[in-house]
Structures are given as C-alpha cells and as structure tokens.
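During the second year of the project, the team shifted from modelling isolated chains to modelling whole assemblies. The rationale, set out in the original proposal, was that interfaces cannot be judged from single-chain predictions alone. As a representative example for this report, we include one of the complexes processed in the last quarter. Its constituent sequences, exactly as entered into the pipeline, are reproduced here:
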Amino acid sequence: MLPLKLSEIAKILDGTLIGPDDPVLTGVAGLNEAGASDLSFLAVAKRPSDAAGSDAGALLVGPKVVVDKPCIQVEDPYRAFAQVLAGQQIEADRAFPPGVHATAVIDPGADVSRAAAVGPYCVVGAGSVLGSGTRLGSHVSIGCDVTVGVDCVIHPQAVIREGCRLGDRVIVHACVVLGSDGFGYLPGPTGMQKVPQVGIVAVGDDVEFGAGVTVDRATTGRTVIGTGSKIDNQVQIAHNVQVGRHCALSAQVGIAGSCVIEDGVIFGGQVGVGDHITIGAGTKLGGQSGVTGDLEPGSRVFGTPAQDAKESFRTTAATRRLPQMQALVRELKQKIDQLESRLAAVEGQHPSANNDQEN
Amino acid sequence: MLPLKLSEIAKILDGTLIGPDDPVLTGVAGLNEAGASDLSFLAVAKRPSDAAGSDAGALLVGPKVVVDKPCIQVEDPYRAFAQVLAGQQIEADRAFPPGVHATAVIDPGADVSRAAAVGPYCVVGAGSVLGSGTRLGSHVSIGCDVTVGVDCVIHPQAVIREGCRLGDRVIVHACVVLGSDGFGYLPGPTGMQKVPQVGIVAVGDDVEFGAGVTVDRATTGRTVIGTGSKIDNQVQIAHNVQVGRHCALSAQVGIAGSCVIEDGVIFGGQVGVGDHITIGAGTKLGGQSGVTGDLEPGSRVFGTPAQDAKESFRTTAATRRLPQMQALVRELKQKIDQLESRLAAVEGQHPSANNDQEN
Amino acid sequence: MLPLKLSEIAKILDGTLIGPDDPVLTGVAGLNEAGASDLSFLAVAKRPSDAAGSDAGALLVGPKVVVDKPCIQVEDPYRAFAQVLAGQQIEADRAFPPGVHATAVIDPGADVSRAAAVGPYCVVGAGSVLGSGTRLGSHVSIGCDVTVGVDCVIHPQAVIREGCRLGDRVIVHACVVLGSDGFGYLPGPTGMQKVPQVGIVAVGDDVEFGAGVTVDRATTGRTVIGTGSKIDNQVQIAHNVQVGRHCALSAQVGIAGSCVIEDGVIFGGQVGVGDHITIGAGTKLGGQSGVTGDLEPGSRVFGTPAQDAKESFRTTAATRRLPQMQALVRELKQKIDQLESRLAAVEGQHPSANNDQEN
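Output from the structure prediction step:
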C-alpha cells in the first residue's frame, strides 16, 4: 500500500487531513518507534501532548484532536491504523507462493484445490481436502481424511491429524498440533491401559490457533472449537472439550477433558480448568485462575480455586493485613487476660456478684 | 471391526445380549452423540434412566442393568467400550503405510528394522536403531545414536535428539522434543556461560508422550522416564529428572532439574516442581500446585506453596471467611475498649482492688 | 577430548594432581553415576566424605581438598568439570555435517555462507542470510528476509518466520517458533477482527531459546530479546515485549504483550506477567508468581498477585495459622461475653459507675 501521500491515506480512511503539510509516508510504526517517514497513531485515551516526543512523520488522531504534526482525524485511530497495517502486511505471494511446491507429497487420493498453495515438504494424506485460497507453509503435515475449508492459512510445521475438520478462514500457526490423542487410560493388570481415541477435532470458521497450541481429538465424537474463537500460543485443549463461539483464550491456558466453554468467554493467560466443568457464556477469567467448579454465565473470577473476582480481591487484601491482624488479636488476648484479673480483683470485693456469674 | 451385529459384539466381549432385537452397529459414540446405528455405553455410575435421551442403537451396560434398548451386559461397560474402540481405531496401515518412504533420509549407518515403517521426509541419523513394528509419521527427526525399541509409534514432527534411548511400545506424539539441552549456565565474565549437556534421555517401555512435550537431556548421565508412565501434552521435564514407573503427568506440568519422582505419582494439570525435590511414591498433586520441598510417599497436596490437601482446603475456607473475621475482631476490640472503660469506672469506686492489679 | 590420563587433564585445567595414581579417564559423570573410568567432581559445598560412596575413577575437587581417590585440585570444581564436558560434547560434525544437504530448499535469493551447515529438508526463503559457522539441523524453516548471524545453532523443526533477525552465537532448540503473529484483535461487527502483525522479532547475541519456545512478532516495530538472555523450554513471549540483556527465563514462563523486562531479571518457572508491565533490572521472581503491576529494580517477589517475597512468606505463614487463629478469636469472643456478664453483675451493685459508662 505505502508509500502514499498523507492526503491519499486520508481518502482511503475516509478521514480529515489536517495540513498544511502533506508528507509521503513509507512505513507504519508505534508512537515511540516511528521515524520521519512513518505514519503512527495517537490512541483515543491519550492526550495531544503525548505525541510531542514522537518522531513520526504523521499521525492518525481522534475527532477534533490537533497535534503539532501533519495528521488525519478519524473516528477510531487504532482501528484506522490496523487498516493501514493490513495494507502493509507482507505480500501473501512472497510467504506462500502459489501452486504446489515440487517437493510436496500429496496423496493421489487427496483433493487439493487448484487455487490452493502448498509449500515445500508438505505432506497431505489420502482423502484430505484443501479448499480454494488455502495456503500451507513449509513442512505442514496433513493426515488422512482431513478437511480444510477455503482461505485458510497453515504455517510451517503444523500437524493436523487424521479426520479433523477445519472451517473457512482458519489460521493455524507454526507447530500447532490438532488431533493428538486424548489422555485417557484405564487401570489394567500391568499399569495404565490406553483408551483408543477415535474421535476428531472440529473447528468452525475464522478461528486462529497460536504457535504451539495442542488440541486433542475426542475419545469418540468431536472436540469442538466454535466459529470466531481465538486461541493464543501454547494453549492446551483436552479431548471432548466444547469451546463455543467468539471465545478468546490467552497464552498457556489449559482446559481439561470434556469441559464446555460457552460463547464469548475470555481467558487470561495460564488459566487452568479442571475436567467436566461448564463455564457460562461471557465469563471472564483472570490470569492464572484455577477453575474447580461450574461458573454461571457472566461470571468474573480470579484465583485458585477460582472465586468471584471482587471477593478474591477483598480476600487477598485481607490476607495481606493478616500479620497485623494476628498482632492485634494477640494484643486483645492480653487485654482480656488483664481485664479478667482486674475484674476478678473487683469481684473479690463482691463475692455475691462473682457467685452469680459462676452459677 | 464394525459393522457387526450386536450378538457378534456380545460374543467378542464375553457379555450377555439382552434382546430380542439384534441390530447391526456401524459405529461407536458417547451417549449424547450416538445415533441409531452406533454402539454406546452406560457407565456403572449412571442409572438406567440416564440412557432414555440417547439415540444410540445399542448400549453396553453393567451386570443386571436393563434399559429400554438392545444392550449387552458386561462387568465394566467403559472397559468393554474401550475394547470396541481399539478395534475401530483408524487402520495403522493407513496412517503409517509399511516400509520406508522414498523421501526418508536414512543414514547408511542406521539400523532400521525391515518391519518398521518410516513416513515421508523422516530423517534418521547414523548409529540409530529402529526396532521391528515401530512406525514413524512424516517429518520425524531422529538424531545420531538413538535407540527406539519395538512397536513404538512416533507421530509427525517429533524430534529425538542424539543418543536418546526409548524402550518398547513407546508412543511419541507430534512436536515432542526428547533430548534438548538442559538449562544450565555458570556465571562468567561476559554473562552466563553454557554448561555443556552431554547426557541423554532414557525412556522405559509403554511410555506415552503427549503433543508438544519437552524432555531435556541430562548434563551428564540420564534423564529417566520410567516404564508405564504417561505424560500429557505440553509437559516440561528438565535435565537429570528421574520419573519413576507408572506415573501420570497431566498437561502443562513443569518439573525442574534433578527432581526424583517416585513410582505411581499422579500430577494434576499445570503443577510446578522446584529443582532437586523428591516426591514420594503414590503422591497425588492437585492442579496448579507449586511444590517447594520434598513430599512423603502417599502425600496429597494442593496449593502454592503446596501443602497437605485437607489443610489447604481448610486454609482456603478460612481465608474466604477472613473479611467477616476481621469485622469480628474490630467488634471485639470495641467491646474490650468499652469493658476497660466500664471496669475502670467500677475500679474507681474500689481503689484498693485497682492497686492490687497494677502491682 | 577423552580418553586422557588424569595428569594430562590436570595440565589442561591448570590444576594440581594429587596422586600417586594417574588413571586413564574415558568419560565424565555425576558423583552418583560415575564408574571406575569416569572423571567426576566434588562441589565446593560438599565435604570430602561425600565422595566416599562414589565409584568415580577420579575427582575434581576444591583447593586443599583431599579425598580417598586420585584427584585434581582446582579453584572451582564445577566450572572445571564444565570445561571437560565442553571437550566431550558430541562432535559438531556428526550432528551437523558441513555443507548444504542435497535436499535443502534454498531460495536463489538467499545468502547462505559457504561456512554454514544446512541439514536435510531445511527451507530457506528469499532474502535471508545465514552467517559463517551457523549450523541448521533437519527440517528447519527459515522464512523470507531473515537474518541469522555467525556461529548460531538451530535445531530440528525450528521455525523462524519472515523478517526476524538473530545476532551471533544464538542457539535455537527444536520446535521453537520465532515471529508468529501477536494476539491482537479489534471488536468488529461479526466478532474479533485480526490486527495485522507486521513487526519482527529482533534477537541479540548469545541468546538461547529452549525447545518449544514461542516469541511473537511485534504489531509494528520489534519484539526484542537482549544479548546474553537465556530462555528455557516452553516459554511464551508476546508481541512487542522488550527483554533486556542477561535475563534468565525458566521453563513455561509467559509474558504478555508490550512488557518491558529490564536487564538481569531472573524468572522462576511458570511465572506469568500481565501486559504493559515493567519489571525493573535485577528483579527475581519466584516460581508461579503472577505479576499484575510494575516492579522496582532489584525486587524479590512471589505469589499471585505477586508481592514482596518476604511479605509473601509472612502472609503464607500467617494464612496457615488461620484456623487456629479463628479458634482463638472465637475463644476470645466467649471470654468477652463472660466478662461482660460478670462486669454487668458487678456494675449491678454500683449503679452510679454503670451510669457513668452509658452516658
């Protein structure tokens, strides 16, 4: 997209150019990193003076905001910036040249769209289908009977095992494993005996899997990742889990077997969820929470075992005052002892009152 | 195995057919997912009425259990179901065609059994041995001088580095790394200086490594994973750790260097263990526990720092009552202040008693 | 290096041979594992008697230490041992044969040093540069426009995506992903809308990445890993994080977006850091800590939410005494109730005192 004049960018973004200068911008960058030929943005939450230290050549700013630089006023500067970024993204052609690389091993029984791109050393098994516009980086391993929809992107070294199904526009980052065996055993005479895992992983549309994510196939049936859900790096999802639509799972989250995550649930990083737990729609889980029981829709939780976030903060605050509280209790105990002695002395002079008490 | 008549399945499982119907079953599925031609099972813990909503064509049930469907009575329905699943598992031939794929790079100095299967783009280094019946998926990287026993399964993109040794019937899932360098440094004049890691990883028989597991080689000697232990996805095991026999490590567990995990230890997900710690045989660790010291055999622990699970639950419960307790202590303090004033007033009328107390 | 006579090793290490025996040593091993032809070491912290049970053929020991075996006295036995290990490390030639393997796919537009080694099935994209002495294992995926300095080691299945830059002597272990997309979305009419991630990952010199580490590229600009920092297995570093020089990140640490980790910070395992947090130079974080706010240089923290380590230990100790404390508070409450009754009885005999109090 770039280089472009600022005025040309303003037209594309449907924004208002605040001149008079109209520099040519060749790149995009954050406020602190931007140089004289870069376009940057001033988030709505910031003040015009926050732009003073930036070397950016021009800025995207909110409505009516004026800074001491050429700028474009737009409704939402970050969103407009993301739009410019999209134009700047490395050309798909370069990372994913069209066609099937000569070294790819495609089983004759696979159905790869002519409008798909398959990188060097990919392997696609019998019975698998790759939709139009779907692009595979190098060394991707697609097992037998896998279905991948249209316009998906699968990065290098990803593994999609036999029978799994992906919708459209799914992004799979490097070293993701979809369809590994679930962790299921029965006690046997000579140790744990493996329970065969013959189900699949079924993924909706517009899902993104970060690098190193693992999703186990179901014992029977399907492990499900719902449309629009976004899964950050190194998340682990066990067999038979059902993740709803439009959930966001931050990095290193782990969800044990057969959990049901309803729609729109937001996970902080490193959250753990025990098995067979239902998390209600729209719940938000603070980082490192450990969930040990079902959560109502709209819950806000924190801590291990996870509890209501506000209560958790109150509990944490109270816990941190514990040493002082213990000192206070010790002091109260002493005072009570003193009071007892003093009262006993008084009572000694009033035998009748004392006797009343003791009866 | 399937399709089969229910009566034929009953024979294989040594169970009792409860007819009169004898449907043909073509698949297997969980109670909620099963359709009219699927076999499912009713776990011992459930009641016959729990089967009412299922569309399954037939069920495996416990002894003497009768449901409103064709069923087979067996001692342990889940175990019998697992046996049928094993028969249903995708044919080994299909995911792992026999023989060595033309694209595999096998060093002339490697010894690959004629009864082993090696997938596309595998690399096997000099001095390595693959036993009979062992099967490698695509893109497996076997370094030099690696020994893999018989009937092992190694899934795509797994990496087994130089010198490591695996027993028989070991399963290695995708993107596992066995034999990466341990995290060892010495302070040096220009920063941390790497301590060479020249040991190996030694794995017993019947071990399973989930997707994305990493096990570091020993600095010297061996990092050991004992026979029959099962390791879930994304577990991390550091250099010189000794894992005993028949342990189960749930997903995302991390064990720091030189720990000794005795036999039969069960880890919940995301547990962390500090270095040089011994965990006694048969210990069970609750999810997300953080172990900071040795644990006696048979321990049950929870929390960070990990403590006895029952005490931990008591502590957690007490912690959650803390805000009320603090309110109570404040109330007691007020009462004591009042008592002091009132007592002082009484004492004012008994100077001698008061003086006794103060001496 | 080995086999060597003990006297020859003493010369290399500049140590003092304590004879009279001068055995030939063929291997190196820890104290408990060493056999009769192995060299081992006695750490400074240990006593000579700790060597009694070892079968080692000879020992490296501290200054003036004498044991009942042939030994070499050196300033720092462990450091000297590491020096011998370095000599023992598997020959680079064997794991990384020189030259470019016939199966490697090197784009004509890539610049691979003639003194670099590229293993089987590696892929190197257009515009990428591999410096002299840099060695790639099998199946390494290097995207377009990647720069790798001199004397780097990149293990099998590692992925370095487009545009990333590595300094000299960087070690990248198996299944590492550098340059995956950051986890950035904007709310949109049909769900979360991906914010393009067009920045890079920039890595200094002498950095080591453990197996399975993931580092996301910046949204714009650079995610930075400073010179000399060491990163253990399965660590996750999000977009736009700045890691300083000579930091050590233990296994399974997760750092959220845009954090600044200053120089020399030491992370225990499984630590989590929320986004946009600054951790001051030289800070040490205990295992599993969860950091929710900025930390001053030189901090020592523990717990979730992370707090000063000493306070955290005090708080934990106080928490564990909570059940007893609650019992004590209940007891105090009873005593106060009794005191109140008794005092009321006394006051009943002194109406005037009581009235004073109530006014």
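Residues 353-359 of chain C have pLDDT under 50 and may be disordered. The longest strand of chain C covers residues 38-41.
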